[in-house]
Amino acid sequence: MRGKSPNWLLGVLIPTTYILGEKNIIVIGLFPSSNSLYTIDMTTNYILNNLLSMKYTSITICNLFATVATKLTSKNMADNIDNMNYLEEALAKNYDTVLIGYGNSMAGNKRLREEKMKLDLLLQNCKSNIVELVDKDNVYSRLHTIHPLFAGQRFTGQWKFRKYIIETVEE
Description:
alpha/beta
């Protein structure tokens, strides 16, 4: 844990790395539901099950916000500086794939939009393949930044990626 940021990197390295070669991915969600290393929530379970079947051998999970909560509020979104610095360091590791999966909750929230724009600024310098989830049948193709829990409940085993479009930010 770093400073105020409980956004630990959940990293899973699968033994098949030696057979398949390493294929690594970082998943960026919205916020953690627990800070326990012993708790595998449904989101993490769907991420592991679907990405392992897509032959990823190293899976890292981070969040846009580090605050452990059941719901984001203005108060627990207030100080996110440490977490954004942490994400910047994580993205500098040049993963093969960066999966943006923070979902569409609170889409009209100004503070959330600000943090998404900050993430997009970080992604502009990222050399990884930056993607978002969609289903193989394109039933949910109108949605963007689909959360892995939503994807797992509606089209588990049918995940595919499409290019994530980085919003350009005027400075």
